[in-house]
Structures are given as C-alpha cells and as structure tokens.
Amino acid sequence: MSTIVAQVPVAAPAPAGTASSTPSGSGTTQGTGVTPGVTAVTPSIGMTSTDVDDAPAAQRATLTDLHGAERGAAAAAHADSLRVTGALAPLLASLYAASDARVELLGAYLAQAGDPAGAAR
Amino acid sequence: MSGDASRTARVLAAAEADGQPAPRLDQEAAVGALGAMLEACHAAIYATATAGGALAPLGPPAAAARELARSAWLAHRELRDALVSALQAEGARPPAALPAYRLPAAPVSVAAALRVLAQVEDACAAAAHDATAVLSARSRRLAVDALGGAAIRAQRARLSAGLPPATATRALPGAV
Predict the structure, then answer these.
(1) Looking at the record, which segments are called Disordered (chain A) (predicted)?
(2) Is the ipTM of this complex over 0.90?
(3) Nearest CA to CA, how far is A87 from chain B (Å)?
C-alpha cells in the first residue's frame, strides 16, 4: 500500500535522510520520475512554491493556465453529460455549467490583468 | 399528485385531446421535464422584461443592469422557442405563458433588479438540471446548454450586484 506522502508529487527537495524512508517501488511515485534531492522543480497549477513571483507577467501566465485548464474541464464535462444517462447526467451537466461560469470569471480576471483577449479565448 | 406529475398529466392530456396518440412512459418524463423548463422560461421572460422596464427610468447608473436584463430576456426567448419545438417534436402541447407572474422582489432599484435576475436564472437552472436526468441525448443538449447559460447569467447578475466571486459563483449550478 502506498503512503499519502508517496501519492503527493514532490514539490521541494526532500530533507536529507528521508529518501530512504519511502519504500522502494511502492505506489505512484515509481513512475513520476522525481528524484529526491533534485532541486529543479517547476511549479505548476495546484503546486506550491517557496518562490513568490507577483510580477504581472507571472500572474497573467498563471491565469492563462487556469483559464485553459478550466475550458478543457468544461468541454469534457459537457461531452460527458451528453454521453451518460440517469443520475450522473445532472451532476456532469452541473459541473459543466460551473466550469463554464469559472471560464468567464477567469476571463474577466485575465482582462483585468492586461490580457483583453483572455475572455475571448 | 406532485406539481411535476400534474404538469405532465396536463400536457399529455392536452396532446390526447388533440387526437394525438398517447406518448410512451419514457416520453412522459421527457415531456414533463421540458414542460417544467418551458414554464420556468416563461416566468424568466416576464421577469427579465419587467426588470428591464423598471430599470429604464433609472438612467445611466442602471445601464449595465438593464443590458443584463435585456440579454437575459433575449436568451430566454430563444430558449422558449427551442423548448416549444422540442415539446412539439415529442407530440405534446407546450404549456402557455401565464398572464403575469409574482416576482420574488419588486425590481425598483438596480440592486433589487439584479437579485431578481439572479433568482430567475437559478430557477431556470434548477429546471434544466432536473431535466438532464430524464431527457434523451438528443434533447438533453438543450437542457445542458440552458443550464450553462443560466449559470453564467446568474453569476453575472451577482457579480454586477457587487458580490465577491466566492458567493457569486455556484459549485453545482441547478443542484439545489
């Protein structure tokens, strides 16, 4: 059985001596390609980093990533809601509607951040 | 008999009275769901028109809210026509609009009008949400798209009213 630690992507180098505490070949870490002790970790959506970059360009990039991810989620939920039947259909339709609304919200934030094309993307 | 069941019976009875064959059982649920969406849509058309009219004398400060009311009115008119066509394709008689509807609040100010617009969209979203469970894939697209449109318009109204995104958005629109 894999541990919770093993299921969470590594976002920072593990402290010395902890690498050997993870059972070899267990859980999902086996295929992640993350090597403990390697410092070159690029933060992405949903991952935290100790380096704070509040520059407008960084904010626009983050919003653009979120906007694109949300659009993808909305499209997937829309397609799924038409494919399934019964009790699952309302849930997927509702998830689609929520994602679609968030796409518009993120588009508004993008426009505020100086990317007027954000809402139209 | 519940409201939905009596509505279905009413619509189906109207269809049979016209000499059309009695629909199948799975059609009954679809007709009931489409009828519920259409009745919510009729009310939304009335509410958005009333809100737009009430906002008109308020001048430029109400211009943005009035535009929201106008675009919602247009969207619901388009949806109404699509729902009427869908019901007729099922062999049912679409329920007619009532002469008037009781609004949740009098849209006497921009804030009140925006609240009405959001509440109307929430009601339409709930009807569309419930409809997706019983509609076939062919007509479910209508309900799914209607749910998405209602969620966005409700969010716009709440954001325009000054609510923060955390309360202007809904985690699962239509799921009450």
Answers:
(1) 1-56
(2) no
(3) 6
